[in-house]
Design goal:
Structural class of chain A: alpha/beta
Mean pLDDT of chain A: 92
Shape of chain B: globular
Structural class of chain B: alpha/beta
Strand content of chain A: 5-15%
Strand order of the largest sheet of chain A: 7-6-5-8-9
Oligomer: heterodimer
Number of helices of chain B: 14
Number of strands of chain B: 20
Low-confidence stretches of chain A: 308-314
Strand content of chain B: 15-25%
Largest sheet of chain B: 9 strands, mixed
Mean pLDDT of chain B: 97
Helix content of chain B: 25-40%
Helix content of chain A: 40-55%
Low-confidence stretches of chain B: none
Radius of gyration of chain B: 21 Å
Chain lengths: 314, 432
């Protein structure tokens, strides 16, 4: 199958074939990453701008490494404040970057839909590195890659996503991608952190963590943001941990093997017990490695689609 | 756009007069002399040297009124002015508009209303300004309503914001009673909508955008209905958008509460599905709701719970709308697409007859505001909208008369467009 997308904006609407192609491609790049010289010349002709309007260490580093491993030229900048506060619009910022002859823009922004907006103003390919509470497609892909590694399949796999679903772009990308691959998804969190009508995603919803644990093959534990307490969405971190914190005790009570993912950064002792994050159940560091491979795959496939778009006669 | 001309001697041949109450049509010619309807019926003048207009295929109705527009003057003349707003109104078929007072300075003083009237003096379109409920639209103290009525205010509203303080709303309803003027409320319980940018529902859930729940509108509607009942004041609910609000108003009207309301064309046409893709031209307040809400406002129009169609014409500069969804201001322009959407969605959609639909855009808003009825009759001042109801046209935002372009209807095919207007001793023949 040929990858025909111009941008990677979201996993919603992606077919199983497309997702499989990305994950398979990522596997080949994962192999590249294990080599003594983990670098290929594939994207020598490509220039990528990493534009981060929101602080990020892991995702930005992961994209930069992926670009370097593929020999692309890259520039990165972190815009500490939003475009509005800076006085320059997002559109102007992006068009200025593009005028410097950039082929791809990786964007992280606090506003949902910012990458979609950019994709309408730019000729460059846009990769969503997280837009507000909407989606974080490369995170969804790396989680799926990690699960596929661990279980050898995604079809029929039971994945529970635990925590602040409402404000989680990781949850949204995961549930769209996993469902397209035939996995079952359950969302678990306090009523106030589950978005309205979440069942219409075709997922199960529970507020009982033990029930989620006994159902699931894998738990994807989301980071809880402390400022949500100030917004009155849960009473205290203490109560959150008591109800929704993943602990060894809970796993022992369920009496089963379970795989734990976390998109990071971890609030140790809040959403997950510190020792559990480093335990035999955790695949958190695998996720980080797979993140580079998945981003290499996305860059590679989009670059290929661009080539096809630019000279269809070839 | 071509300019209106003095209506010294104009003969419209072959139009049909549409009776908005009965829906009956009467073939007629209309002779206008010095802005007054001089003759109706079959008119044959062998040596007519005035302006002869072949109005075959058109219908004639009392001049349309949009009772909810934002003209941005004074304050944001880059977005709209009285002059450009009046041109947009003409292009949309309106001979009257009611500008909302959320200008800078706020229309809470005689001087601002005087200024507006002066700016509109030579326009074909008549301005009936709505003044602020509270001084500075701060929602704290009621404005000098008596003086504002003397200066031409037809109603009071802090539109853009609700009158959040119940005591202020109570006093406003009580005080405005003395002048027989309605208080128009933008119903939104602000603590429930804090941070919200679209309707709260599955679409907002999926897009990860903060939602504004329907109950935020309904709670405020319910409060206002109770206050209207308690005070006996005249209440008009702006831009009703939810099924629950329609039902609350329906019940209150059945109980005899003096309440009227309006709906916008976008709220009876679009759902929150339109927000998918994050186009800021689908961001307005109240937000686009669900299909069930669209059905409910249509049912409300059908059974008379909703009397008025008004556009909430809200111009915003291109650079303010061409941003990430959350950063964009609320609102879209509507003057130039309102009539076409009404015919396409409500008349073709079998919600209202043509007469009922046009009544909601002319006689009904005038009745809400207590303005004298406009009649197309011999000896009356000519205030007429001629409509070509059959013409289909494609919305091209680059051709709008408004200074702004913020519409979600660009590229839509609409039916029905203004053919000509007469008002204030002027006439205008539309040329596209």
């Amino acid at each position: 199958m040929e990858f025909r997308r111009r941008h990677l904006l979201e996993l919603e609407g992606m077919s199983r074939e497309e997702l499989t192609l990305i994950l398979d491609t990522a596997e080949t790049f994962r192999e590249v990453l294990e080599r003594p010289i983990p670098k290929v010349p594939t994207l020598r002709a490509l220039t990528v701008a990493n534009v981060f309007f929101e602080p990020s260490t892991r995702t930005r580093l992961s994209f930069e490494l992926a670009e370097k491993r593929l020999s692309a030229d890259l520039v990165s900048f972190a815009a500490a404040t939003s475009s509005v506060l800076k006085g320059e619009t997002l559109k102007d910022t992006a068009r200025n970057i593009e005028a410097m002859k950039v082929d791809m823009v990786v964007i992280r922004h606090s506003a949902a839909g910012a990458p979609h907006f950019l994709s309408r103003c730019l000729g460059a390919s846009v990769i969503n590195a997280g837009d507000g509470c909407h989606e974080h497609p490369t995170q969804g892909l790396l989680d799926m890659m990690t699960l596929r590694h661990k279980f050898g399949r995604l079809e029929g796999l039971k994945v529970a996503i635990v925590g602040d679903i409402e404000h989680s772009r990781v949850a949204r990308s995961n549930l769209h991608g996993l469902r397209a691959m035939g996995a079952e998804v359950l969302l678990c969190g306090p009523t106030t952190l589950l978005p309205v009508e979440a069942e219409r995603w075709g997922v199960q919803v529970t507020h009982d963590l033990d029930e989620a644990i006994s159902w699931a093959d894998a738990l994807n534990v989301l980071r809880i943001q402390k400022e949500r307490q100030g917004a009155g969405l849960f009473p205290s971190l203490r109560e959150y941990h008591a109800r929704f914190g993943v602990t060894r005790r809970r796993l022992e009570r369920a009496g089963k093997e379970i795989t734990i993912l976390h998109p990071g950064p971890i609030n140790r002792g809040v959403e997950i017990e510190s020792d559990l994050a480093d335990s035999e159940f955790s695949v958190i560091l695998d996720q980080v490695t797979n993140g580079v491979a998945v981003r290499m795959a996305v860059l590679y496939l989009l670059a290929g689609a661009r080539g096809a778009l630019e000279s269809p006669s070839q | 756009m071509n300019q209106p001309q003095p209506a010294r001697e104009v003969l419209f041949k072959g139009t049909r007069l549409l009776d908005l109450d009965t829906g009956s049509e009467q073939h007629t010619d209309i002779l206008i002399v010095d802005g007054v309807i001089a003759e109706l019926g079959q008119i044959d003048i062998p040596t007519f040297d005035g302006e002869l207009i072949d109005a075959g295929g058109t219908i004639a109705v009392p001049g349309l009124m949009d009772m909810h527009v934002h003209l941005r003057e004074p304050g944001r003349e880059d977005e709209e002015t009285v002059e450009s707003g009046c041109r947009a109104a003409m292009a949309g078929g309106f001979t009257a508009v009611c500008p909302m007072p959320n200008t800078d300075p706020v229309a809470d003083k005689r001087e601002v209303l005087d200024f507006l009237k002066e700016r509109a003096r030579d326009q074909l379109v008549e301005l009936f300004p709505i003044a602020a409920v509270s001084k500075g639209r701060k929602g704290e103290e009621i404005a000098e309503m008596g003086e504002l009525v003397d200066a031409g205010a037809v109603a009071f509203s802090d539109d853009g914001d609700p009158v959040h303080n119940a005591a202020v709303m109570r006093r406003a309803l009580e005080y405005a009673k003395m002048f027989g003027r309605p208080v128009i409320d933008h119903c939104q319980e602000l603590t429930l909508t804090a941070g919200g940018v679209m309707n709260e529902g599955f679409v907002s859930t999926n897009l990860g955008l903060p939602g504004m729940p329907a109950i935020a509108e309904e709670i405020m509607v319910a409060r206002d209905l109770l206050l209207a009942k308690f005070t006996g004041g005249r209440l008009h609910i702006a831009h009703v958008s939810t099924a629950g609000a329609v039902e609350l108003i329906r019940r209150a009207r059945a109980e005899g509460v003096q309440v009227t309301c309006e709906v916008t064309p976008h709220h009876f046409t679009l759902t929150d599905q339109a927000v998918v893709g994050f186009d800021a031209n689908t961001k307005m307040n109240p937000p686009l709701r669900t299909a069930a809400d669209v059905e409910a406002v249509r049912a409300g129009l059908r059974d008379g719970t909703i009397q008025v169609i008004a556009s909430d014409h809200a111009p915003h500069a291109v650079e303010e709308k061409e941003v990430e969804f959350a950063a964009a201001p609320f609102g879209i322009i509507g003057l130039e697409t309102s009539l076409g959407l009404v015919l396409r969605e409500l008349v073709d959609g079998k919600v209202l007859s043509l007469a009922q639909a046009l009544k909601a855009m002319s006689a009904a808003p005038r009745a809400v505001l207590g303005l004298p009825e406009v009649k197309i009759a011999k000896g009356a001042m000519a205030n007429v909208t001629f409509i070509d109801p059959q013409v289909e046209w494609v919305v091209d935002k680059s051709r709008f008369q408004s200074r702004c372009r913020n519409t979600p209807f660009h590229g839509w095919t609409l039916r029905g467009r203004v053919f000509a207007l007469c008002n204030k001793g002027l006439y205008w023949r539309a040329r596209w």
